[in-house]
Design a protein that fits this description.
64% of the residues lie in helices and 5% in strands. It is mainly alpha-helical. The protein has one domain. It starts with 9 loop residues before the first helix and ends with a helix. The N terminus is likely disordered. One of its GO terms (molecular function) is unfolded protein binding. Keywords: Signal. One of its GO terms (biological process) is protein stabilization.
Length: 204
C-alpha cells in the first residue's frame, strides 16, 4: 500500500530547521565573524542529520507512525485478499447464475472495490496529516530551544547543515552546537515523558 509509506526522513525533516536561518550565507562560514557575548561566535550551526538521528522525541514519533502504517497496511491487505477471493469465486460460479444475480453480484463487488480504495486513501491521508502535525511539534520544540540558547549565548544566526543538502560547504567544528542542542532537547523530553508516564500510572 504505497499511500502509507512513511515520509519521515531526512529529506523532509530537515525543513523544520530552515526557519532558524535569518538568511542563507553567500559564502562559506569561516572563523572571522565578530564574537558574541562571553566570546561565543555569533554564527553557529546544527547538523540536522545528527539531530534527527539522536533526538529521542523524533525517533519515538517515527517508530509510532511506522507501526501505525504497518498495522493499517496489514489490515488493508487482509481485506484486499478477502475481496480477491470473492472475485475468484464469482468468476467460477458466475456462469451458472441468472442475469439478475450476476448483475447484483457485480454491483456488490464494484461497491466493495470502491470501499477498499477509499479506505486506502483515507488511511494514507490520516497518516500524512498526523505526520505533518508531529513535524510541526518537532520544529516548534527545536525553534523554541534555539531562541532561548541564542539569547543566552549571544548567537545572531543559527544555520542548519545537512550533508549534500546545505549552503554550508565548510565550517569550523567549534561552530557546531548539535550536541548541546540534542542533549538539551532529550533532557527536556525525558522529563516530559516521565511526568506523562507518572500521570498515566496515577490514573490507573
Amino acid at each position: 500500500m504505497k499511500a502509507l509509506k512513511i515520509t519521515l526522513g531526512l529529506a523532509v525533516a530537515t525543513s523544520f530547521l530552515a526557519a532558524c536561518n535569518n538568511s542563507k550565507p553567500d559564502t562559506v562560514v569561516t572563523g572571522t565573524e565578530t564574537a558574541g557575548e562571553l566570546g561565543a561566535p555569533e554564527i553557529v550551526y546544527v547538523n540536522s542529520d545528527s539531530l534527527l538521528a539522536n533526538y529521542e522525541y523524533f525517533t519515538d514519533v517515527r517508530d509510532r507512525l511506522q507501526g501505525k502504517a504497518t498495522r493499517s497496511e496489514q489490515d488493508l491487505r487482509a481485506k484486499a485478499e478477502a475481496f480477491q477471493k470473492e472475485v475468484a469465486k464469482y468468476q467460477q460460479t458466475g456462469a451458472s447464475m441468472s442475469q439478475s444475480e450476476r448483475a447484483a453480484t457485480e454491483e456488490r463487488l464494484a461497491q466493495k472495490q470502491q470501499q477498499l480504495q477509499a479506505l486506502s486513501q483515507n488511511a494514507g491521508n490520516e497518516l500524512a496529516g498526523e505526520e505533518s502535525e508531529e513535524m510541526k511539534k518537532i520544529y516548534d520544540r527545536v525553534e523554541e530551544y534555539l531562541k532561548q540558547l541564542s539569547e543566552e549565548k549571544g548567537y545572531k544566526m543559527v544555520l542548519t547543515y545537512s550533508r549534500g543538502n546545505s549552503a554550508i560547504l565548510y565550517s569550523d567544528p567549534s561552530r557546531d552546537i548539535t550536541e548541546t542542542v540534542v542533549n538539551a532537547l532529550n533532557e527536556a523530553y525525558a522529563t516530559e515523558k516521565g511526568e506523562a508516564e507518572k500521570a498515566a500510572a496515577e490514573k490507573k
